[in-house]
Amino acid sequence: MRVALFITCFNDTLFPETGRATVEVLERLGHEVVFPEEQTCCGQMHFNTGYQREAIPLVRRFVEVFGPYDAVVAPSGSCVGMVRELYPLAANLANDNELLYEVEELGEKVFELSEFLVKKTGVTDVGAYYPHRVTYHPTCHSLRMLKVGEAPLKLLRRVRGIDLVELPEAKECCGFGGTFAVKNADTSVAMLGDKLRHVLDTEAEICTAGDNSCLMHIGGGLKRQRAGVRTVHLAEILASTEER
Amino acid sequence: MTIIRHQPEKKAPPDAFSEGRTPTFEESAKESLSNSQLRRNLGKATQTIRRKRGVAVAEMPDWEELREAGRALKARTLRHLDDYLVELEESVKRAGGQVHWARDAEEANRIVAGIAKSHGAREVVKVKSIATDETKLNEYLEGEGIAAYETDLAELIIQLAGETSSHILVPAIHKNRSEIRELFMRELGVEDLSDDPPDLANAARLYLRKKFLSAKVGISGANFAVAETGTVCVVESEGNGRMCTTLPPVLVTLMGIEKVIPQWRDYEVFMQLLPRSSTAERMNPYTSFWTGASQGSGDGPEEFHLVLMDNGRTDVLADEIGRQSLNCIRCSACLNVCPVYERTGGHAYNSVYPGPIGAILTPQLVGIGEPGPDSLPYASSLCGACYEVCPVKINIPQVLIHLRGKVVRHKQDEGGLRERLDPENVAMQAMGRIFANRRLYEGAQKAAHVGQWPLARSGTIHRLPGKLAGWTEARDLKPVPEQTFRDWWKTRRGGPSPNGSTGDGAS
């Protein structure tokens, strides 16, 4: 299948390795990956922080850039959630019925990576090898907004060599929440503290998830504590093979 | 046992519904987050109630259909609210009751106090009613020389402590039993009291029984009121509400106008949704229904007054996205699952409506433009746990985001130079322009990598400046790497194609 990669500005700038891994997994499975270079940001940070008028040009831009493709895949649950669940709100706010029609049509073609692999293409074994003890944190937007369900776990269970351990209270938010982590830093850190405790209780060496934003939060806390536990995006685990 | 009139140990701070500037959520949360006793009490209570709710809901094979029915019933009622309210008024009058309309809190309080005074009442007994907390009825009555006694055990506890409720259903959730024991010994003059819950309940019972028997006027809220029959309903656990609504000869019910439901049969849905969502019970212990006044039958109050209060609700109704907040049946399931509420407690919200529902309801009821209530829509990580459990499917995250937009637009449009020069606003405007232009965006990526060097020399960012310092207080940050993804993509495909979109024939 021909797939347009929606890298997200966050991964593009801060986590290029996740983008490279996403390309690798998709190509290994025989998909043709294209990268529309006009893409920038979906507008989630602006929209969710309340700067919604400022987000509308970004919504229009996204529709223009990705509209022509049959399938758009992103290694981020929350950015896909923005496009699928919140773009209609933005279009309503802009009082633009044509835009509303366009975003509703586009929303059906935009997928988070695990959702694309498991639900859209029916693949669970991507040929990965990852000999580490790993725990999986289901991020809130992938879990409750996109309802990816077991898709990421189905993929992880088929990874060879992996020692997958269940995270206690996994469904509880890590406390990131975008600008919430800065605006309500105290509450955010209080939430993070409990998440870190649960991660450490698993004795995993790696905590993975489908969103680098949440992982940056969890990983930032682990690193500050010198916990010796790393965060790695799901795409990077799926991209790992015995050769590399 | 000596009964003494309580002297609150401290004055409750102003909340969003009282006069004066209330603190912001961030300010108040800082304080409550460092209260280890509160964290322990709340964590334990919310986790227990959450687990039990999960079990009670899992028993229902048609739970999702019930939620959808609840949502649809509320949506229809709100769409025709004017008709249902008039129908309710007619039904109550037909059953011998009197109906009053209150535009706002002040008017509602005046009506209630007027009724109490017309009967020469110096004391009134109350069943837990958030609507009367919203109007600050107790303070108003005190000013009129009337003492109001809360009879719900938890409400009594916080009234004696001079505090405000921190939970919709369990107002004293922030207190544990040893704290309650000390409070009762001090305020009720009870000697030799254990911290056993039955002993504590008994101490309250002895105190309250006398009030029930002597009070001329009872005051209640309402969970529902049926338009077709005029029947008002209160759902509770203790039976004190039943006493309040049956013993005093005069009963006054204050309810928000959104509490009306069209028909008796609608209870089928709500009576399944409410107890399981709130107390994780299949059925709550006491459900009281009354229709009008006793009209000489000797059964129930001789005089019944229903006060229908707006107090900002029609403004909420006018907002297409915000109006779903009026679906709320005050079950408090959203509080119990909220990771923010679990850690900060209800007082951090500075509102009689705390938690996720409070974060959307309060700013809408009091209006945008005050720092305290304006901070509430931001008191959420948008994790969506509240929406998942809401029995009437209020999309709380969606309303939170919608209200954040209103807060920002209000600042930008109504604010002065200070608001426009606010660093957040300036940064967001700048980033909006950068993201709208690929060249500017790519330039900013380079600039971020180059500009971060003073912070990222050790390979990790330990400290950020300004408002961003909130991040690095407890979290390290990974520096921006030299090669962005798009740079890598270009190297991989041997440079951009003539149209500037490598490997991309579609645009």
TrEMBL record, chain A:
<feature type="domain" description="Cysteine-rich">
    <location>
        <begin position="3"/>
        <end position="83"/>
    </location>
</feature>
<dbReference type="GO" id="GO:0016491">
    <property type="term" value="F:oxidoreductase activity"/>
</dbReference>
<feature type="domain" description="Cysteine-rich">
    <location>
        <begin position="134"/>
        <end position="218"/>
    </location>
</feature>
<protein>
    <submittedName>
        <fullName>(Fe-S)-binding protein</fullName>
    </submittedName>
</protein>
<dbReference type="InterPro" id="IPR004017">
    <property type="entry name" value="Cys_rich_dom"/>
</dbReference>
<dbReference type="GO" id="GO:0005829">
    <property type="term" value="C:cytosol"/>
</dbReference>
<dbReference type="Pfam" id="PF02754">
    <property type="entry name" value="CCG"/>
</dbReference>
From TrEMBL, chain B:
<dbReference type="Pfam" id="PF13183">
    <property type="entry name" value="Fer4_8"/>
</dbReference>
<feature type="compositionally biased region" description="Basic and acidic residues">
    <location>
        <begin position="1"/>
        <end position="13"/>
    </location>
</feature>
<dbReference type="InterPro" id="IPR003741">
    <property type="entry name" value="LUD_dom"/>
</dbReference>
<keyword id="KW-0677">Repeat</keyword>
<dbReference type="InterPro" id="IPR017896">
    <property type="entry name" value="4Fe4S_Fe-S-bd"/>
</dbReference>
<dbReference type="GO" id="GO:0051539">
    <property type="term" value="F:4 iron, 4 sulfur cluster binding"/>
</dbReference>
<feature type="domain" description="LUD">
    <location>
        <begin position="87"/>
        <end position="308"/>
    </location>
</feature>
<dbReference type="GO" id="GO:0006089">
    <property type="term" value="P:lactate metabolic process"/>
</dbReference>
<dbReference type="InterPro" id="IPR037171">
    <property type="entry name" value="NagB/RpiA_transferase-like"/>
</dbReference>
<dbReference type="Pfam" id="PF11870">
    <property type="entry name" value="LutB_C"/>
</dbReference>
<protein>
    <submittedName>
        <fullName>Iron-sulfur cluster-binding protein</fullName>
    </submittedName>
</protein>
<keyword id="KW-0408">Iron</keyword>
<dbReference type="InterPro" id="IPR024185">
    <property type="entry name" value="FTHF_cligase-like_sf"/>
</dbReference>
<feature type="region of interest" description="Disordered">
    <location>
        <begin position="488"/>
        <end position="507"/>
    </location>
</feature>
<dbReference type="Pfam" id="PF02589">
    <property type="entry name" value="LUD_dom"/>
</dbReference>
<dbReference type="InterPro" id="IPR004452">
    <property type="entry name" value="LutB/LldF"/>
</dbReference>
<feature type="domain" description="4Fe-4S ferredoxin-type">
    <location>
        <begin position="326"/>
        <end position="394"/>
    </location>
</feature>
<dbReference type="InterPro" id="IPR024569">
    <property type="entry name" value="LutB_C"/>
</dbReference>
<dbReference type="InterPro" id="IPR017900">
    <property type="entry name" value="4Fe4S_Fe_S_CS"/>
</dbReference>
<feature type="region of interest" description="Disordered">
    <location>
        <begin position="1"/>
        <end position="45"/>
    </location>
</feature>
<keyword id="KW-0411">Iron-sulfur</keyword>
<keyword id="KW-0479">Metal-binding</keyword>
